[in-house]
């Protein structure tokens, strides 16, 4: 499965830890946005669990958007960057 993960983290130290975790699962496409391709259900649940343990649930937000293969193929962008890697796509 393919997930777009977006976050808004208040504390700089926690934000750094969130970024470090997400770099292990995906590609940073903007300062607070990662594209996580080829996610199995287990990998997604592990990533989500790792992130949920470190954020402040009263101030921080992490959003996980699953995208189907067709939707990933329809992603448009302007400016610098690369389109999502649809070849790395797998189904849960």
Automatic annotation (TrEMBL):
GO terms for biological process: defense response to virus; maintenance of CRISPR repeat elements. Keywords: Antiviral defense, Endonuclease, Hydrolase, Magnesium, Metal-binding, Nuclease. The keyword Lipid biosynthesis does not apply. CRISPR (clustered regularly interspaced short palindromic repeat), is an adaptive immune system that provides protection against mobile genetic elements (viruses, transposable elements and conjugative plasmids). CRISPR clusters contain sequences complementary to antecedent mobile elements and target invading nucleic acids. CRISPR clusters are transcribed and processed into CRISPR RNA (crRNA). Functions as a ssRNA-specific endoribonuclease. Involved in the integration of spacer DNA into the CRISPR cassette. Pfam families: CRISPR_Cas2. Homodimer, forms a heterotetramer with a Cas1 homodimer. InterPro entries: CRISPR_associated_Cas2, Virulence_VapD/CRISPR_Cas2. One of its GO terms (molecular function) is RNA endonuclease activity. This is CRISPR-associated endoribonuclease Cas2. The keyword DNA repair does not apply. Its cofactor is Mg(2+). It is an enzyme of class 3 (hydrolase).
